[in-house]
Amino acid sequence: MMLEDELTVSTRERDEVAVIDLVGDVTTFAEEKINTAYREVTSKGARLVLLNFRQNDYINSAGIAILIGIVTEVNRNHQKLAVSGLSQHFQKIFRMVGLAQYAGIYQDEEEALAGFKSLT
Amino acid sequence: MSVPTSIQTSMELSLPSELGFEVIARDAIAAFARRFGIAADRIEDLKTVLSEACINAIEHGNSLQPELRVQIFCRLENERLIVDVIDHGVVPFVIQGTPLSMVDKIAGLGSLRGMGLMLISQLSDEAGFVAGTGDGNCFRFAFCCQYTNGFGH
Fold it and tell me: What ipTM does this complex have?
């Protein structure tokens, strides 16, 4: 029996930003879904990538490792990355592990899009 | 002010060594902590710390062998919530020294994993391995209680 956490990952484009919506738990089981979504938006030429978290009650260190992998790819591909929608707790965790050095952390999608606009 | 003595102040859990069961444990321990009026932000920290301690026990101490159990003992004592996470020590836990920084990880200088103990040490008030009663690893962490309601100072 596997107790796989439910995570739904989908992609869309908004204001020239590739938005990857992550609904659910981000754990070791999320790796394939997140990496597939990232590769998909990158293959379409995305320069600005937003990881939009929603209803993420559980993000563990294995999930954070997946996101560090995304940061590595974003740097390699000369893209810009931001995250939005995290709870206060997980915003704190992201800052604690150093992810905030590589990705803007925003309260919500609108704020993140405005943040990207200020870069361009 | 102490918690009323009429309330039970300890709890034990036993989990199979399979990733995903730590979610059940974290929900249980969060409910246990809420029962004593511990502040909501500290409960979020507690949930993350418990999850990471369980993941270490499942992945390392019990080498992902589902038939081996992870035991969790938690108790409220002297206004501290103390949690022991015990595995079978299939692999004795060896701390690998200073974990890689984010810069090093992104530069590809090592594994992207290995942030669990750092999170535990940053989020809890004390944490570390202690002598257990058996051959396994016993990892203990504690939170000083910061109450938000009825039991508060």
Answer: 0.91
